Every structure is written in C-alpha cells, then in structure tokens.
C-alpha cells in the first residue's frame, strides 16, 4: 500500500471508522513480511472491530428469528380477520421457506462473486424492505409475495455469518461464532413481547401491521450498521488478487482493536492466500461421487432434520398456546395467546445455548448434537401427544421448554461446517431452510473439518 491511496474519499471514510495512520511514518529498518491471510486475522486478535461486526451480523440473525416466528402469531390473527382457509395458512408458512431456498441458491454464491459486503447489505435490506412492506399488505396474494421476498433475504444470511467468521481468529472461532446465537435467542424472546404489546387478545385487540413493522426494525439497524461498520472480507479480496485493499482493511482493523497497525503489518507486508494453493477446483457434482456420496446424504439428512424439527417446534409451540375463537365471528379480536407460556418456552433457548457452550469442547460436536437430537425429538413427540390429549398447561410448558432447550444444541451442526477457506465458502454454507445447498471447497470438501 502506498501513501497516495490515503487521499481518496473511501480511505477517509474508513479512517474515520477505524482510526487513521500514515505510511510515511514507517521506520526504515522494519523488515517486510509475507503473511497468510489467516495469520493476518490471528494478528488482529479479538477486540472492538470484531464486536462491531458481531453486532451487525447478530441483528440479522435476530431479524431472521423474528421474521420466522412472527408467522405463528400472524397466521392465527389473519385466519380470523381475513377468513383464511387452512391451506392458505399453511401456504403462508411454506412460501417463506421457499423464498429462503431460492435466496440461498442466489445470494450465497453471489457472495463469492461480488464480495461479502455488498451481499450483506442486499440481504439485510431485502428483509427490512419487505418485512416493513408486509405491514401494508391488504390482500392475501401481496402478503405471499412480501413473505417470499423476506424468505429470499433470510436465505442470504449465510453471508453475514461468513463475514463474521472470516474476521474471527481461528483460535477464537468456535466459541465466538456460538455467541451470535444469543442474538437469535433474543429475537425469539422479543416476538412474544412485541405480540403482547401490539396484538393484545380477544378482549383488547391490537394491530397486526404494527406487529410486523416492529419485528422488521432490527434488520433496519443491521442494514445501517453493515454499511457503516462492516468492511469487505480480506480473505475474499485476496482470492480476487486485491491484496492492497485487504492489507488496508486489516491495518484499520488493527487500529480499531487498539494495536499499532504499522507494527503489526509493516510497510512492505504482502498478504497471500495460503489455503488456496490447489489449482484443481471441485464442483457440486463431486458430492455425488462414490467417495463422498454416503456422507453427503447423511449430512443432508442431518440438516433436514435440524430444519424440520427446530422450525416445526417454534411454530407449533405458539399455535398450541393460542386459541382461535371461531364462534365469535362478530368479534373484532377473535384470538387469544398464552403470551407467558410462549415467552417461557422461548427463554429455554438461553439455557440450551449455555449448556452447549460448556459441553461442545469437552464432548465434541457430534456427541453434543446427537444428545440434543435425542432429547429434542423425544420431548417434541411427547409435547405433541400431550397437546392432542388436552394435557394441562404445566405439562405442555415443561415439554415445550425441554424441546426448545434441546434445539439450541443442534446449532453445533453449523460449527462443523465453519472452514477457514474463503473461496466457495458462501456457496458451501448451509442455512436453516427446508432444503440445504452445499459445495466442496477449493481442492477440499466441506466435510474435511468434521
């Protein structure tokens, strides 16, 4: 990097965010360095820079949780207000996941083509715009369109997660990537609170447009923070032969973390892509080769089970703890929700996440995930059986709590896919949609780290 680049407006803006420094002050006796990009991230350590990105990406995750969970409230309300048939209600759920599947197929590989930062912005902006747009829908078809587009944005949330992962040192990656799930849990806790405040009940009906509007607010802030605080991934820049830009970003990140950027990355430092030296590139079809077919099908089954069980549970819990007053057709608010039970069951995810944080390193990802599946699946079965036999509220609440607590153990499946490689990573990332998309990394497979 040369000093002539410090005069641009983009450089000035980044200096304002991460601190400024002058390459003219470099001591002449500092030896040049050749640094692999992973090593450069290690040199940054953990600090305010990663916290900024965690907060921006975390709000996206909170928005994901809120946009999915709000459907379980919205479907009950609109079933009465719009006189929707059961099939129409089911379609309202399915269209979001259909949008997420399309969004994963489009936005994730786009992150490998045009970069992490623009796709981060596109993802957050899409959820924000169409999340708010849902509040202004007056017809069922428009509602389906806006929810499909929200799902499309949700499908791109692999990219904000990758952006965070690529700025976190390998030595801190496991636990720190789990911390983003606290934002998800915060989102699931906020939805029943917002619903209680805006929807009310049969005795004091509220406003569903206000409900969905407020639920879209976190992603609006995520969009703004993404634009202000999140730079392009140095890992991606290096794969595009844009080493100078990558070096400028890691220097500013070092300054943001309170380090001397010119001591950490002296003048003459060159970033190299040490993890992508294999020229032969793999394709998605290699997953179906005899060597990888078995593990491909097994992992797809695991991801399908994760998606089916988790999303099914969070939607089912809300519906079980709600009442649709079909006989009161003349009543404006023809629904009742047990907001307390829904909130308590959602709070179980906090305990589940804490348990995972203390057990994943001791017992491993596979063991932790297997136990979580066993407890979660068993509790879910008992919960649904109890609901079908009109069991008492306390029994339903205990089973719902156990089920949702176990569900957070399943997030360990994500960590099994977090590789240090960048090229192809967004395309290879999986997200909680009803279908999962995965590709091998350059010269490696997405299973090599398991």
Characterize the structure shown.
The chain has helices spanning 9-18, 37-44, 48-81, 86-113, 116-134, 140-155, 158-165, 173-178, 181-198, 208-229, 234-239, 243-256, 261-264, 293-320, 339-363, 365-388, 393-407, 412-415, 425-428; strands spanning 34-36, 270-272, 322-324, 335-337. With 450 residues, the chain is an all-alpha fold. 48% of the residues are buried.
Shape type: globular
Percentage of residues in strands:
under 5%
Query: Mind telling me the C-alpha Rg?
Result: 23 Å
Main sheet: strand order: 1-2
**Uncertain regions spanning at least 5 consecutive residues:** 1-28, 327-332, 416-450
Helix content: 55-70%
Please provide the ordered H/E string of secondary-structure elements.
HEHHHHHHHHHHHHEHEEHHHHH
Question: What distance separates the N and C termini?
Answer: 38 Å
Please give the number of β-strands: 4
The chain-level mean pLDDT equals 77
> How can the largest sheet be summarized?
2 strands, parallel
Q: What would you call the structural class? A: mainly alpha
Number of helices: 19
Secondary structure elements and their pairing?
Layout: H1 9-18, E1 34-36, H2 37-44, H3 48-81, H4 86-113, H5 116-134, H6 140-155, H7 158-165, H8 173-178, H9 181-198, H10 208-229, H11 234-239, H12 243-256, H13 261-264, E2 270-272, H14 293-320, E3 322-324, E4 335-337, H15 339-363, H16 365-388, H17 393-407, H18 412-415, H19 425-428
Parallel strand pairs: 1-2
Antiparallel strand pairs: 3-4
Explain briefly what this protein structure is.
The chain is mainly alpha-helical. The chain is built from 19 helices and 4 strands. Helix 3 runs antiparallel to helix 7 and helix 15 runs parallel beside helix 17.
């Amino acid at each position: 990097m040369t000093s002539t680049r410090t005069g641009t407006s983009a450089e000035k803006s980044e200096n304002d965010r991460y601190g400024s420094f002058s390459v003219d002050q470099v001591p002449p006796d500092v030896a040049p360095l050749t640094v692999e990009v992973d090593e450069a991230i290690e040199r940054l350590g953990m600090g305010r820079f990663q916290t900024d990105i965690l907060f921006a990406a975390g709000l996206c995750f909170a928005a994901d949780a809120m946009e999915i969970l709000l459907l379980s409230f919205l479907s009950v309300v609109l079933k009465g207000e719009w006189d929707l048939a059961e099939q129409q209600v089911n379609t309202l759920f399915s269209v979001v996941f259909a949008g997420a599947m399309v969004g994963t197929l489009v936005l994730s590989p786009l992150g490998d083509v045009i970069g992490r930062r623009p796709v981060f912005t596109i993802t957050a902006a899409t959820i924000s715009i169409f999340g708010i747009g849902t509040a202004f829908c007056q017809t069922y078809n428009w509602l389906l369109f806006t929810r499909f587009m929200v799902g499309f944005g949700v499908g791109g949330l692999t990219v904000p997660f990758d952006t965070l992962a690529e700025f976190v040192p390998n030595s801190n990656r496991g636990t720190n990537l789990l911390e983003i799930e606290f934002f998800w849990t915060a989102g699931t806790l906020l939805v029943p609170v917002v619903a209680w405040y805006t929807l009310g009940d049969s005795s004091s009906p509220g406003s569903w447009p206000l409900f969905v509007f407020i639920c879209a607010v976190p992603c609006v802030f995520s969009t703004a923070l993404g634009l202000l605080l999140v730079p392009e991934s140095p890992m991606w820049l290096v794969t595009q032969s844009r080493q100078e830009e990558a070096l400028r970003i890691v220097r500013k990140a070092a300054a943001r973390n309170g380090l001397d950027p010119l001591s950490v990355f002296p003048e003459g430092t060159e970033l190299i892509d040490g993890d992508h030296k294999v020229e032969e590139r793999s394709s998605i079809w290699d997953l179906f080769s005899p060597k990888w077919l078995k593990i491909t099908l097994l992992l797809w089954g695991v991801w399908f089970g994760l998606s089916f069980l988790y999303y099914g549970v969070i939607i089912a819990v809300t519906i079980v703890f709600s009442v649709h007053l079909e006989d009161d057709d003349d009543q404006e608010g023809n629904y009742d929700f047990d907001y307390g039970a829904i909130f308590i069951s959602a709070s179980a995810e906090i305990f589940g996440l804490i348990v995972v944080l203390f057990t994943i390193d001791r017992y491993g990802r596979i063991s932790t995930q297997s136990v979580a599946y066993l407890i979660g699946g068993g509790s879910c079965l008992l919960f649904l059986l109890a609901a079908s036999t009109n069991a008492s509220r306390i029994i339903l609440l205990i089973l719902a709590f156990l089920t949702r607590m176990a569900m957070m153990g399943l997030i360990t499946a994500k960590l099994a896919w977090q590789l240090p490689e960048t090229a192809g990573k967004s395309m290879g990332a999986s997200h909680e949609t009803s279908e999962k998309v995965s590709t091998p990394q350059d010269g490696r497979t997405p299973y090599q780290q398991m």
